[in-house]
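Dear U.,

Please find below the material for section 3 of the report. The protein was modelled together with calcium ion; I have listed the sequence and SMILES used, followed by the predicted complex structure.
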Amino acid sequence: MLRYKKICLFGAVVAVFTLGIWGGVRYVLPTQPQITKRVVAQSLHCALPSQSAASPHPGMVWVPGGRFEFGDNVYPEELPVRSVALAGFWMDRTEVTNDDFAQFVSATSYVTVAERAVDLNLYPNLPPDMQLPGAVVFTSPNAVSEQSRLTQWWRYTPGAQWRHPYGPNSDILERGAYPVVAVVFEDANAYALWRGRALPTEAQWEWAARAGQVRTGQDHAQPQAANTWQGLFPVINTQEDGFVQLAPVGCYPANGLGLWDMIGNAWELTADAYTPDHSQVHEESGIPIASNVHRSAATGQRVIKGGSYLCAPNYCARYRSSARQPQDEDLGTSHVGFRTILNTSGP
Ligand SMILES: [Ca+2]
């Protein structure tokens, strides 16, 4: 039942964000392929520069500490803007990739939540398809009506998991450099612990994405150099950025700290439990004040940051450093991944 409720909640949350955007308009388009092909723009260079072997933490970059304006005013959940001070930390320069995650699974035989059998004693009233292991997958519809009915483009898909991110007929062959998705908070934490690291807090993530920009509100425009959605979501994707779905990490220029894809590509899980806004955060850390909120299952949802390849101006304009959204802790989706941090001294 909990799992079923979570699916409903997932829909409800996104529905709230959607209301007022569609206005009852119906779009009908020619048939589109269910699994859309990847188109690489000529100008993209999807290869990361090598890092010095002398780096104390290969694959990570140092994020200097600082005080900044945490939050924004585009959506209510970004308010109020708070002044937050953070110590420096190391951060993965890219989202965790399928190759990275495969190393973890190979070393530990870890089984992700989306692969595990559903406990029907805990969830006795699930619809038949949701009694099977899986994750939620986005599929672009040919037509959309009743804008609040998100099942037109989001479907719980048995067999979807990190090795099959768009469903059982998809795979990650030759996609080792793509961000791992269909993983949940528990999976991301397990990976981070295996690496001796942690997930970033929301404030750490936001500060890193700012790359030293103290003032908020400087990044409201849809970025040109990131994997987002150009066109009318969810039916028309003009793929001007080169990708309809996920892109390999590192295709677009890094930010000023050397962090790739902080905005767009895959949403990124953080350590913080989701709260409706920033009214109850610690001034020095940005962490929710209630001690039972941070790093707990108190709400069942975690904050995700950065937006994804599905963020468009007409829907979910969350391709911004301060944007935030809740993600159910036990529900994998085809557009949520993560990266890790290391709280230790700098270079
Ligand atoms: Ca795109």
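For the text of the report, you could mention the following: The pocket of calcium ion is lined by residues 227-229, 239, 241, 243, 309 (CB under 6 Å).

Regards,
Y.
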